[in-house]
Give the backbone structure.
Amino acid sequence: MNGTVTIVTGGAQGIGRTIAAFLAEKGSDIAVFDIQDGADVCAEIRALGRECRFYSVDVTNTEITKEAVNQAARDFGKIDNLVNNAGITRDNLLLRMKEEDWDLVLNVNLKSVFNCTKAVIKHMLRTGGGIVNISSVVGVMGNAGQVNYSSSKAGMIGLTKSVAKEYAERNIRVNAVAPGFISTKMTDALEEKAREEVFKAIPLKRLGESRDVAYAVYFLLSKYGNYITGEVINVNGGLHM
Ligand code: NDP
């Protein structure tokens, strides 16, 4: 990916940070879009010899997102790739779920993808490009207590396939990665019993690592994914096949 420029949303921490650092390791310069401070990830990326800039962006805000994308294109001279990774959970059973938690999760997880994709695609029309959306296994198989989250993640898959069809002729490839249980702060907080239950359901009998997600993103954005578009890659240890 030498010489490419990639925007990673939610890249200041967690899986997004690992994706940003791994793509930098593979030669890409990185623009981090996050509401958290991206100074640390940018320091990590610069130490790898790649350029990194942090943009403080709430990706639910259409105008601010558009301005930040245009600013990144001016700063780097172009945009080759976009990884839509920013996401949140506000879990509850349907009957207890508040309307604001539905709206918030759909805005952060799905509307943000519309905002970023629309703003970025204009910069890819002549050059081509790659987009990867970080969905989730629960967007594919559903999950009790996550009606808002699983709907947003299923919506990302529909968006992925539609945008892939609209812009294939411009050589813009659009794919999704659907991670299962990944070892993060969220899964570290699982109690021992819950952890055992999770392990029972996963054929590989372990949690995934953020790096496992980053490998799939790299595969899709690099030349190895050159003939792949509209695809969803499951990275879930066999939890759902
Ligand atoms: P984290 O919460 O660790 O990181 C997400 C980052 O996105 C945070 O810095 C977060 O800030 C930021 N963010 C949230 N809202 C916005 C916004 N409106 N604009 C810009 N940035 C925002 O999440 P994970 O690393 O665990 O997850 C990353 C992605 O992977 C998510 O889309 C998640 O749904 C998906 N995923 C995660 C799995 C897991 O096991 N962890 C499994 C399957 C999918 P803040 O901290 O303030 O919210």
Remarks:
- The longest strand covers residues 172-179.
- The longest helix spans residues 99-124.
- Residues 9-10, 12-16, 33-36, 57-60, 85-88, 108, 134, 136, 179, 181-182, 184, 186-187 surround NDP (CB under 6 Å).
- The chain has a mean pLDDT of 96.
